[in-house]
Every structure is written in C-alpha cells, then in structure tokens.
Design goal:
The structure is a homodimer of 380-residue chains. With 380 residues, the first copy, chain A, is α/β, with parallel strands linked by helices. Chain A has 15 helices and 16 strands. In chain A, helix 7 packs parallel to helix 8 and helix 10 runs antiparallel to helix 15. The longest helix of chain A has 27 residues.
Chain lengths: 380, 380
Amino acid sequence: MLIESPDMALFDFTLDATDTRSAARAGTFETAHGPVRTPVFMPVGTRATVKGVTAPQLREIGAQVVLANTYHLFLRPGADVVRDAGGLHRFMGWDRAILTDSGGFQVFSLADTVKLHDGGVEFRSILDGSPHFWTPEDNMAVQQDLGADVAMVLDVCPPYPAEEGTVAEAVRRSAEWAARCRAAHTRADQALFGIVQGGVFAHLRAESVERTVEVGFAGYGIGGYSVGEPHELMLESLAPVAAALPKERPRYLMGVGNPTSMLEAIALGVDMFDCVLPTRTARTGTAFSSTGRMNLRNAQYARDFGPLDPGCSCPTCTGYTRAYLRHLVTMKEMLASTLLSVHNLHFLLDLARRARESVLVGEYRAFLDAWRSGPGADDY
Amino acid sequence: MLIESPDMALFDFTLDATDTRSAARAGTFETAHGPVRTPVFMPVGTRATVKGVTAPQLREIGAQVVLANTYHLFLRPGADVVRDAGGLHRFMGWDRAILTDSGGFQVFSLADTVKLHDGGVEFRSILDGSPHFWTPEDNMAVQQDLGADVAMVLDVCPPYPAEEGTVAEAVRRSAEWAARCRAAHTRADQALFGIVQGGVFAHLRAESVERTVEVGFAGYGIGGYSVGEPHELMLESLAPVAAALPKERPRYLMGVGNPTSMLEAIALGVDMFDCVLPTRTARTGTAFSSTGRMNLRNAQYARDFGPLDPGCSCPTCTGYTRAYLRHLVTMKEMLASTLLSVHNLHFLLDLARRARESVLVGEYRAFLDAWRSGPGADDY
C-alpha cells in the first residue's frame, strides 16, 4: 500500500509503500547528501574508489550511496588525511551519500593476527604488519573523521562455520560494543547503525536483535552472512531477523548483493545491500544479465555485434558491442574492467530500482516470481 | 595573418591563419566525422581503446581525432571483424575522426623476425608468432576494412642509428610503396597520407619529400623521428622537411608528442601530432603540468589538498586533489591511471589548442618563447 510522506528530518526513514503479499517495502532515508530511495544497492568503493569507475559514471547509472571501508582507509591514507581533506565526500569527489562499515569484518577476516579483549581488538595491518588497537570508541573516532553519512558500529564477526559458543560470545560482545559506540558517537550529520550478529543460530539472532534494538539506532545492519554459509540457510535464518527489526528503521544486509539473494531478501523486508561482486566479476571479464552470467572470453562473442544485454540502458550496452567488449577482455585492456563494472553495477542498481517500483505499484510478488522462474535465477 | 574560409570539401585543408614570425599555421581539415582544427594532438588508442579512457571522457577533454594501430588491430580482433562491425568508429564507439597508421613502424620495430622484399614485408605476430605477409596493396585493404578517416601508406622505417645506405634504401622503397598504396586505395571517405622518411640525412629527407609529393597525397606524415635520435637533431633536420612540403596539405609528425617538441615543430609548420607519452606516463603515476612532470608517488603530495595543476580545467583537476590522486597511485588503483590519463591527454590537447589560438591572433612566437623560458621546457 502507498503511504503519504510527511516532511522529513535527517535520518528519518519513511515507508513509501509496503507490499501486501510479502514483507517487501519501499522507503526513503534522508541524509545530508540527499535522500536514499530503498530498496537500494550500494556500490563498494573499498579504498575511496569504486574500482575503475569515476564519480560521474556512478551518477550516470544512478548510484545513490557508495560504501567505503574503514579498515582500508584507516591504514591508507589514514583517517586524519581524509578528515583534513574535508571528509570522504570531498576526498573522493562524491557528493551523494556514503556509508562506511566499521572495519570489524576486515579486522577479523583479513588480519593475520587478531586478539580480542572485552576492551577492544588488536590487529596487524595487511599492508605492512604494523600493530593497531581499536576500542569501540577509537573506531567511532575514525569513522567520524571519515565523515560518511552512515557509520556502522564496531562488531565482532565470527567466521563460518563457528561453534555456537563462539557465536554467542560474539553476540554478547557486539551488543556491549554497540552501546559503547552509541555513547561515543557525537556527529549530528552522521547516522549510526547497529549490527545484528548470531550466525545461523535462530535464538542467537533473536537475542542479538533484542539487545541491539534495545540500544537503539538510526538503522540496523544484519551481519555475519555471505561468509560461506549455504544460500538457503541464510534466507531461512534471515526471515525472523528482518521481521523482528523495527519497521520504521532501514535494514541493511551487509555484504550481500548477488541478484537472487537481493530479491529474496527484499521480500523479507530488507532495504539496503552492498557487494563487491559486480565490480570483482567485471574484472574477470564476466557480465551480469537478466539471462545469467556471460563470460566475455567466450569465442561465441567474437563476431557478436549486438549489445551486451539487449534490454539494458546502461552506457556500456548503448555504446558498445559484445564483440568489442570481448576484444578488450581478451587483450586485457583496462577499459574492459571499467565498461563491465559500469554495466554490472547498473544491473544491480537497476534491479533494486525495479524492485522498488514493483513495491510501489503493489506487484513485488509477481516481480520476484518472474525472476525466480527466469534463466538468471540459478546462475547467481 | 587570418585567411577567409571558403566552403570546404572532404579532406580539404584550409589555412585559417599563418604566423608571420614562424612557419606555424592554423588550419582546418575536413573529414566525414567532422572538421579537425590544427595544430592538433591525437590521443593514441592502440587496440581501438585509449587505455583506461572512455569515448565520452575523450569528448569532454576535446579530442578531435584518435589514432589506432593497424598492426595491433590486424592481429586482434582482425580487420574483418572491425569491418563487419561497421568499421572502427562503430567498433570502438567513437564518432569523431580516426587515423590509422599503416603498421609499418610496428612491423619493423616489434616483430622478432622481419623480411623485406621489394614486393612487401614478411613478419611474425608479437602475440603468437604466426607468420604474415603484407604487400602495400594488402595493407591498403586492411586499412580500408578498418575504415578510419585517414589512412597512412605502408612505409619502411629504418632504426636509429642506421647507415646512410640503409636509410637511402628505405627512402627508395617507401616511395615505390607509396605509389602502389595510392593506386590501390579506393575508399572515397578515407584520406590517404604519404610518409616522408630519410632519417637525419638532409639530402635523403629532401629526396623523400620530392618523391612522396610527386605521388601526391591528401596529407603528409613525417616518419622516422622519435626513434632515439637527439632532440636537437630532430628539429634541425625537420625544419627543411616541413618547409618543403606543400603548404595546402596537413603535415603530421608521427609519434612525437612531448610538449616541447610539439611546440617547436608547430613553429616549423607541422600540424598534427600523436604520442603514447601522456597515457603511458599516467600509468606510471606521473602527471604533466605547466611546471613540469609531477611524480604522484612523492610523499610531499600526501596532504596536498590542492588540484593537480591549478590552472587546468580538466575533470581530474576540477574534481580531485593531489592527495587523493597520490592515494590512488600508491594503492595501485585503476582509477589513478584513468584520472591521470585524462589529465595528461587534456594537457597536450589544450597545449595544441592554445598554440592554434596563438597563431590565430598572430602571437605564436610569444607563446613559444613563454614555453621555452618556463619551468616545463627542460622537463619534457
């Protein structure tokens, strides 16, 4: 059903429509760098750059919000440099919304040596092995220096698979750190999102939701997925999490962005997504399309003078042929990565946009069913 | 002096102005893909792509004509593929003018094994060692398949240094091949340029001019420079060559495009330039500027929040800081190559544009003197 929008304040999340046959919703999240219409896919700009894609190109394909990684920026060029540049928006030349993760995921998955205390986390730089220590308060200071529109709390991310005890410990510690982050966070122009953990244990997810919501945040990340668990297990355990989170706050499924998972999660009431998949896949010479993945190395494209994806309106599909893209890919030309990244990002941005439109007209269920029965569903 | 322009036919070259204190001139060369205003710098798109730069980005910085390499395109994807795609313009998505070299330079400088006969040249692919044989007629067929606005004759390029006898032989053979190319070339929408050789031997250059002009072409390339000879030697031997070429035809100094050489050659009456220097330099993290080259790896830029080149109006200088570009360069991010390529190409395109404006207002001598006495003159 369509909902009337009142005047909005910073970080208000207004539900523009909710689906009657699923938990899908269309919303608007207000930031100091413009509104973000959800469901939304967020391109990942790890080191303050979406690899190979310029800011004007991102604008052209309709990116509303870009993600940057606190861990990487903390190491290089350093949060102080970004702060002194006037913040991330000015540093990277992007005037729409930005979200920074806390770096918790990278600390736990990338660092060779990581030591966890109740007080904080010790880790070593992947770049030069230098030792670092973050309390939740330190992490908030770093993210406030970076100055994104949305910051995430520092959480503890257990690997998958993990013992129930390990996950329970992570849930407990994440909740305590969430409260400390909330207390340490002072930037009025930056929203702070909590993060729900709990792995694939339903009761731990439930506990994490309860404890995180108790602290109270402008939005909620759902972490600990897309770490190797089976696709079905994720959706199964995600459903009650999404349902339990407050309706009036945006829900962000962290690190998930393959087309099928995104559409299924939207049906469960998730609003925001990010993933390196579209750009990473592009750099291997593979394109997304409504009929599945296309490996441009394939000889069948050598004399194929049609567009990459006939139904697509992105600059790559309207400007170039499969034969040309294959030529660039096989010759290892940089432009291949740029043009395929633009297309793959557009594919996900557009899929989220069309999902939103389906919710607005009350047709999300049909939209999802069409995807499920289409040729691309099993390929992602 | 300013000259009035009559109505122009395809491949007419109109002199818009000539300088009174040097041989510099401003002209307009008509092609089926728009007029080319000279002096002009031509970005190099070796494999039908200016490395890391999209067609819209090239348009934005004012590129009028792009060069593509016949040798590389002949090997991959093959001239037949480009032809079947509708020609180079459609293949690479570039609707302004294109010039293809003949591939002669690459055949003689890149191929491991090359055998020269009066009939043609035998060479092996740098990609897979496969054997190929080109007569001048074969080469014309290839370039007509590619379908650029300007094709170049197949010439013989001796290395530097070379014995006088070797160069004399190259001049003789190049002239004979020029006549065969001219006879074999039939595309009405494609201009064919002759090429003057002769190394640093004044009498051989004079002979080459005479024999090539005798055949008669829509324009003249000046080849065999920028192959390792000293800068002064090039200018010294270039002066009489440029002076001897027909005034009413464009003159193209092949493979030369460092700023100082370009401006000096313009003073000698040269109209067209190409060089991989701006993009290749960009990929090493170095930027061109009016004050010389800047190595962005340098730590002095880590907290430099000013533009790359304060006087520059290119998208890189108006959108990003030195600190950000240094960050991208040190992190080996693809975007560094793209943004620096855009800037470096703009630098040369703009330098040629300003040279043209100086000729139009009768101030080229002052413009050249200002460059010569400036901080960048010795750095290129």
